[in-house]
Amino acid sequence: MMDTNSELYRAALLMHGHRCPAMPLGLRAGLAAMEALDVERSRDGELRALVETDRSHCGACFGDGIQVATGCTFGKGNIQKLGYGKFALTVIDNKTGRSVRVVTKPETIQKSKESEFIGFRKQGIPASKIDAKYVDSMVEMMLSAPAEALFNIGEVVEVKLPTPRPHDFNTVTCTQCGEVIVERYARIKNGQVVCMPCAEKG
Questions:
Q1: Contact in structure between 135 and 19 (CB atoms under 8 Å)
Q2: Domain 171-200 -> CATH class
Q3: Side-chain half-sphere of 107: how many Cα atoms within 13 Å?
Q4: In the CATH hierarchy, which fold is given to the domain comprising 7-158?
Q5: pLDDT tens digits for 109-134?
Q6: Which of 24, 46, 73, 133 has the most neighbouring CB atoms within 10 Å?
């Protein structure tokens, strides 16, 4: 269990920017998945996270907690949004092919929806402008409740791993805008090397 003084939560809050229930929920979901797989936080590309939220998802903050917990980040390229609109994720161990899916229980979501914090959010008030007294109890619950009370944690199963794609260190310069591109993303237009945006221009 953890609380708001936990080093991991404080790091996640610094990265995320505001207090809300969804970010610590994602933090706990990521930790639950790692515990089920008996793996450590990804320092390079050891893990892969498939997050089922999307940009307009009411709990999109869930994804930031997952990034901090698992070490799967957009910078490393080992996290992906599936856009299913769910409060769930799958973590895959890239060394073994073992994976687990963690799904937030409906009652966990319902408690959050019934909170005063969500009432303010529905009115369009930004999370950072809502007084802490309306969210702190929800944050504490997400951090301190047993994982089994918050989530349905699936069985560990093996998945077929895709062939790893090595990083491309070769670069070229777009002949139209003059900006540098990693080579595999370059296009040829009228016999000239161009970037994707320039290739799409009429």
A1: yes
A2: alpha beta
A3: 7
A4: 60s Ribosomal Protein L30; Chain: A; (3.30.1330)
A5: 999 989 999 999 999 999 999 999 99
A6: 24
Chain CA centroid to CA 95, Å: 20
**Domain coordinates of the chain in residue numbers?**
7-158, 171-200
For the chain, what is the HEC assignment? CCCCCCHHHHHHHHHHCCCCCHHHHHHHHHHHHHHHHCCCCCCCCCEEEEECCCCCCCCCCHHHHHHHHHCCCCCCCCEEECCCCCCEEEEEECCCCEEEEEEECHHHHHHHHCCHHHHHHHCCCCHHHCCHHHCHHHHHHHHHCCHHHHEEECCCEECCCCCCCCCCCCEEECCCCCCEEEHHHCEEECCEEECHHHHHCC
| Locus of tokens 């019934």 | 114
Amino acid occupying residue 27: L
Question: How crowded is residue 109: how many other Cβ atoms within 10 Å of its Cβ?
Answer: 18
Q: What is the pTM of this model?
A: 0.88
Return the residue matching tokens 């269990």: 1
